[in-house]
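Study the following:
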Amino acid sequence: MPTDTIELASTPVLAKVFAGAVASSRGRTGQAPLPDLKVRQAGITVDVDALANYDHVCRFPLLNELPSTYLHNLVFPLQATLFADKRYPYPLMGSVHLSNRLTQHRPVLLTEELTLETWAQNARPHRAGVQVDVISRGYVGQELVWEGLAVYLYRGQKIAGDVPEKVDSGDGVDGPGAIWRLPGDLGRQFSRVSGDVNPIHMSALSAKAMGFPTAIAHGMWSQAAMLAALDSRLPAAYVTQMEFRKPVTIPGTVKFVAHPGGQDGSWEMSLRNLKKGTELVRGSVRQLT
């Protein structure tokens, strides 16, 4: 656990945080170690209108319980503050979200006041750069109610160590599923409810400037939409893991497949390119006991 803490009195304005991160990107060479630094904010309450807009874009019903992905949405400004800090060695712009694991220890109510915190650890080699674990936690009072583990890739960066071999994990679930047509402005829609204005999501032109052939959907939109499709069938306490295996290009058409894993509330999920059948996102839900 980091010993140095940035205590936020209010939620930072993400546009300013991103502007600062962009301005300092050239100076981030990846040569320094990850900082012994945590970002924390207490007294967080949920804005009902902001939640309703998020739910609309991600296809959740508006309930008195927060989607587990919305807790990630609330902690993202803290993550961005961490990434923009001058001690953080890797540039925010052009980073790629590889996977995301969320643990919901119990449903979090719309009316509950939250304390959120986040920090980074375990920088290690990846065949395309450096990957880092970003840990997040959510509390109601002293009770741990939610946890997140996001793995980010910083392309083109280098760090000492052996690059792990690529492991063939086979193919995920397939078969009949729901057809989703994703509009070209989906990245901009999600950016308005999440604050994540990474250029790779905003337009084909800005994505190409970052080395991508076209715009891609946010990984957190994919995770949210996949969980929203199962919303009424999710356990009260669960762990969900998503691997963002290939970019979900927008506009595009995808197929969502979900198979129940038995009586324990588990699910296996897959998001696939409709024409090619390529697996884009692989997900799972496991009930906490």
